[in-house]
Every structure is written in structure tokens, then in C-alpha cells.
Amino acid sequence: MTGLKNDRFLRALLRQPIDCTPVWMMRQAGRYLPEYRELRKRAGDFMDLCKTPELACEATLQPLARYELDAAILFSDILTIPDAMGLGLYFTPGVGPQFSNPITSAADITKLGVPDPETELRYVCDAVTMVRDALQGHVPLIGFSGSPWTLATYMVEGGPSKNFSKVKSLMYSDPQSLHALLGLLAEAVTIYLNAQIASGAQAVMVFDTWGGVLTPYDYQDFSLNYMSQIVNDLTWEHEGRRVPVTLFTKNGGQWLEAIADSGCDCIGLDWTIDIAEARARVGDQVTLQGNMDPCVLYASPQRIREEVEAILDSFGPGVGHVFNLGHGILPDIPPENVEVFISAVHELSTIYHQYD
Fold first, then answer.
1. Alpha carbon separation from 33 to 27, 100, 330, 339 (Å, rounded)
2. Portion of the chain with pLDDT greater than 70, in percent
3. How many C-beta atoms surround the C-beta of residue 224 within 10 A?
4. What is the dihedral of CA 158, 160, 165, 166, to 10 degrees?
5. Cβ neighbours of 272 (radius 10 Å)
6. pLDDT (tens digit, 9 = 90+) per residue, 87-105?
7. In principle, which of 52, 196, 287, 305 could form an S-S bond with 266, CB 3.0–4.6 Å?
8. CA dist., res. 247 & res. 267, Å (int)
């Protein structure tokens, strides 16, 4: 179907029979790996690492050299689009991503334009192409972006926030301006993801990290509506195959039915919902991805295996499950515990894939 040596991840996204449950991890290329820390030191700066395709390719492949993962995810950042819009992304130790030119007025929004993937974001597309070539069909490559709402929160807040007071103030006092920003970002994300697909990404994912801070009505209006637009306008087929899309809203368990109705292939789950409940609510409409608490990886090998087994048992037999953490792996997780986790998923899941 795909020409891949290992295509169980793509087959799971499309709800097709597989031999065992596929597994990958959000932030699987990152600070928990000593080889990544060495690479970061060599790069000198996080953004230099992201913007140098050869280095981003190396970071993407590092976890694949250690573990039997079923997918690679491009090493990049969710905030590349606002950076390309001229907001000046930089990272402060202990704080995280920040913008030197955040949005402070409605007039700032009118000055923004959609970045061209062939110019301002060329480095991302070049990295995608390099990774695909380097993988040599071993596993599929996932491309990604932040959701319009999540990008907007950083652009208006200027960085991380505890209460999102600035972007919510804009939302309640001037919703028209915020909708204008979100519409622009939806267009930019669509173009960006389609460029990643054209460059070689075989599946894509939209990270709605901060959708869960919204009220139910506001989530539909300011987050999900724009992700649905993106899903509708994505390239659905490339290189003669379907390109599946996953939507992940952290703390989004209350909206599973609405997310499934967006047209996405897969819903990413955090650890705050039982995957059995999620499966019961969405049925066979979409695949489910998740959803082990990343902190389980601090535990003993036996405890990690027990948690993997509990989640597999909760989902039950049949198609439509991609195993993942409920959010990104944490920087001080022991790398050897990751090996236990991945091996446990493959070993313990085979009994759930006995098809007639």
C-alpha cells in the first residue's frame, strides 16, 4: 500500500488491520536524549537547530536510531509560522518561547501576511525532504503545526501564560479582530502543512495545546472551527496514498464528538480521559491516539508495562489505536525507560490484533 518497510502507523490511522499497535511519542526527539543535548550544544541555539535542515534532520532521526518507533516526527517548533510573520521568536531558559514583537492591538493584526513556505519557511520543507530521503522508507514521517488558537495565544500573550488574560481580553472585547487573526492563521497553517506534504510528510498533526483553556462554546467558535477548516482544505492524497490528519487538543476530552465530526482521521488524547470511554463515544468514526501519562516513564519497568497493558486493555481489540503519551515526553525521563515502554506496546498489543 505505502512502499514502507513499516507502515503500521499509517494503517492504524486509516483503521486497517495491523500486527500490533504502533507507537511513537510526542517530543520523541528532544532533551531526554544525551545525543540530542550534544547536538543542541553544537547548534548553539534552539532556533538555529530548527532552521538548519541538516541539523533538524539529524535530531529527527536520533530516536529512530535508539528505538523501534513506528513513525518519525519532524524536529521543528509549533511557532514557526508566527516567527515567519515577523514576530521574532526566541527562547529563554526557564521561560520557554517568547516573541519580541507580540500583537498588542487590532492594527497589528492587519499588518500580518501569510508566510510563503517556499521562502520564509523553506528550511522546514527542506528538512522534511532530507528526513524522507534519510529514512529510506523505514517508517513514515509526520509533519505538524500548531493550531490557529494556540498560535494566537502565544502571539498575543507574547509567550507562555498562566491565565491567557490578554488573548481572552481580545476575544471578549474585540472578537472580530481575533477571528481575523485566526482566519489568517488557518490559511497559513493549511498552506504550511500542504507544503510539508508536498515535501514528503506522509501524515500531519495539528497541536491545539491551549484549546482546553476555553469554555465549551468558545472552543467551538475560536478553536475547532478553524481546525475544521484546515482539515477540509488539506491535501488528502499524495504519492498515490491517503495523507491522514490527527487533531490533538490538550484537555479536550469533553469535545471528542465534535472533534470527530471535523473530518480528521485521528484524535489525540491526553491522559485525563479513559480511552475506553473515548472509544465508546466516537465509535469507529476515527482512530484514537494516546494516552499514557508521561510521568509513568519515571516508574519501574514493571509499572510501565502495567500501565501500557491497562491502556491496551481499556481500548480493547480491533483497529484504530495509535499508542502515544498524553503529551510530550519530559526532559529528565531515563532513556532506558523509553525502551521498556516501546517494547511493551509492541509485545503486549499483539493479542488485540487477532483478526478473523
1. 11, 30, 11, 12
2. 99
3. 24
4. 10
5. 14
6. 999 988 888 899 999 999 9
7. 287
8. 5
Can you tell me the distance from the alpha carbon of 296 to that of 310, in angstroms, rounded to the nearest whole number?
12
Q: Closest Cα partner for 317 from 290, 339, 348?
A: 348
Q: Could you give all domains of the chain from N- to C-terminal order, each with its CATH number? A: 36-283 (3.20.20.210)
The total number of residues written for the chain in this structure = 356
Distances from the Cα of 299 to the Cα of 240, 254, 333, 338, 356, angstroms: 43, 29, 10, 11, 37
Cell numbers 486509516: residue: 14
Q: What is the C-alpha separation between 183 and 220, in angstroms, rounded? A: 14
Calpha distance 168→152 (Å, rounded): 10
Q: Which residues are marked as active site?
A: 27, 31, 40, 77, 154
Residue 73 corresponds to which cell in the numbers above?
A: 516526527
Cα separation, 318 vs 320, whole angstroms:
7
- pTM recorded for the entire structure: 0.96
For residue 252, what pLDDT band results from cuts at 50, 70 and 90? very high
Q: Does the pLDDT value for residue 172 go beyond 90?
A: yes
pLDDT in tens, 23-60: 999 999 999 999 999 999 999 889 999 999 999 999 99
